[in-house]
Amino acid sequence: ARAMASPRRRRTAIRRAFPILSLVVLVPLVSLTIGPVLSAQRLTQPISPQATARTGILREEPDIARGPAPVRAIPSVSPIAQQPRRPNGPSASAAVRIALRARLDGIREKYAIPGVSVTIIFPDGTTWVGASGMADLTTGIPVTPDTAFALASVTKTFTAALIMALVEDGSINLDGQVLTYMPGLRVDPKVTVRQLLDHTSGLGDYFFHPSMDPLLLSQPDRRWTESESLKYTGKPYFKPGGGWHYSNTNYLILGMIAERVGHASLADQFRDRFFEPLGLDGTYYQPTEIARGPVAHGYRFK
Predict the structure, then answer these.
(1) CA 247 to CA 230: how far, in whole Å?
(2) How do strand 57-59 and strand 31-34 relate by DSSP bridges?
(3) Kind plus residue range of the DSSP H or E element containing 181
(4) Which of 2, 76, 108, 114 pairs with 196 at a CA distance of 20 to 30 A?
(5) What amino acid positions are annotated as catalytic residues?
C-alpha cells in the first residue's frame, strides 16, 4: 500500500511549512493514497503550495470524481476503472469493481477525507484504480489522474537511503559524530549519524515546540530555513543513546549532512541515485522542483 498523504491531525500546517522531508511522488504504484484530512464540522483555509517545504507528493492514476460537494458529504460519483498492468490480463469482475468502489467511498466518508485515490494490484497482475472526492473543497476541484498528494515523512525513507549510500561511498561514518560533518551545529557533541537515523539521539522535535502552531497558522506562506527551524528544537528528551523518541529534527539534520557531504542538493541526489535509476519518472522533490500537475490542498482538524 502507498503512503497516506494526509498529515496528523494537529500538525498538517507544521509538516508542510518546514524545509525537510519532502519528495513529490507521482508514481503509479500499488497504492492507497489518502488526501488531506478535514474536520467533519469545520475546515481551515487550504494550505498554500508556497508554504510547502520538503513534503512529498504522490500522484495516482484514478478516474475523476466530478462535481463540487458540501464539506461533510462529498458525493460518491467517481467512475472506477480497471487498468491491467500486465498485457491482456483479465479484468476484475463487475461485482468486485462495485464492491471496491463502495468500500472506497465509504472509507472516505467515514473519516471525512476530502479526496482519495487508490490502486490495487491483484495476484494475477491486473489492477483496479479508483478515485473519490475533491482535491480542493473551496473550488470544487475533483481528484483526477493528475492530482498530486503530499508524501510528507515518507521522504525520511529516501533520506535514510541517501545517507546509507553515502556511507557505502565512504563519505559518512555511521558512528561518526554529527559535528564532524556539521561543525558549529548546536547539538550534543556525542550525537552520531546512526542515532539520528534510528531516533536515539535524544534531540527534541521542533514540530512540537509550543510556539509552532501559532507561528505556522499566522504565517502560512512562510518558507522556513533549516537554521530557523532548529531554533525551536528545545530541550533534549534524553542523553544521546539513552532511549528512543521519534523526532523530525533528526531527519532535518540528516538532510543537511547529505547536502554538505554529497556536494549537491537533496533534489539532485535523490534524482541521480534513486528516481532516474529506478525509473521513478513521476517522482520529484517539491521544495525545489516544479510541480508536474495539480496539487491537492491540505486541511487540518479544527
Answers:
(1) 12
(2) unpaired
(3) helix 178-181
(4) 2
(5) 153
State the Cα–Cα distance between residues 143 and 211, nearest whole angstrom. Answer: 34
Looking at the DSSP bridge assignments, the partners of residue 31 are: 119
> Tens digits of per-residue pLDDT, 153-175?
889 999 999 999 999 999 999 99
And the C-alpha cell for 64?
475523476
C-alpha cell at 231: 531554533
Query: Cβ of 139: how many Cβ atoms within 10 Å?
Result: 11
* pLDDT at residue number 301: 66
pTM of the model: 0.68
Q: Is 39 helix (H, G, I), strand (E, B) or coil?
A: coil
- Residue 133 confidence (pLDDT): 93
Virtual torsion, Cα 136, 281, 255, 298, nearest 10 deg: 10
Give, as one character, the DSSP assignment of residue 142.
E
> Strand, helix or coil at 113?
coil
Instruction: Look up residue 164 and give its amino acid.
Output: M
Residue 7's pLDDT is 34
Set of cell numbers at residue 297: 490542498
pLDDT at 80 (0 to 100): 33
Buried b (16+ CB within 10 A) or exposed e, 69-85: bebeebbbebebbbebe
Distance CA 235, CA 220 (A): 26
With a cut of 70, list the residues of the chain below it in pLDDT: 1-92, 145, 301-302
